[in-house]
Structure formats: structure tokens, C-alpha cells
Amino acid sequence: MTLPEKPNWHTSSYTSQDTCVEVADNDPDAVMVRDTKERSREAVYVSPAAWAAFVQHAKQL
Question: What is the Cα–Cα distance from 28 to 17, expressed in whole angstroms?
Fold first, then answer.
């Protein structure tokens, strides 16, 4: 998997900047997710399709 030079990290507009997860979705092959309180730890990588399914499910809750 080729990673982008610099991930475009962002958080949800519904949460504060330090109590959530950040998502970088500027790579066509993977979505990266990390904890805002532990940014130095490794990110979790998921496929764009899996991330889209997760977001769709979360919107229904």
C-alpha cells in the first residue's frame, strides 16, 4: 500500500479537537484513523468501503 506523503487529518464537527478520533481520507487505498489523545501511536488503516459502511451505520444510530 502506498501512503500519501502527508495525511489530511480531520475530526468531526460534532466533537472537540481533543476528545475524539481523527480521520485521514486523502489516500484512495486506505482510510487512517487515530486517537486525538495519542497522536504518536500508530493509526488504524481500513479500506474506503469499510469506512463508508461504518459511517453509514453510525449515522443511523
Answer: 25
pLDDT digits (tens, 9 = 90+) for 1-59: 565 568 999 987 777 666 788 999 999 999 999 998 888 999 999 999 999 999 999 89
Quote the distance between the C-alpha of residue 2 and its chain's center: 17
CA distance 3 to 1: 6
3-state secondary structure of 17: coil
* Enclosing H/E stretch for 35: strand 30-35
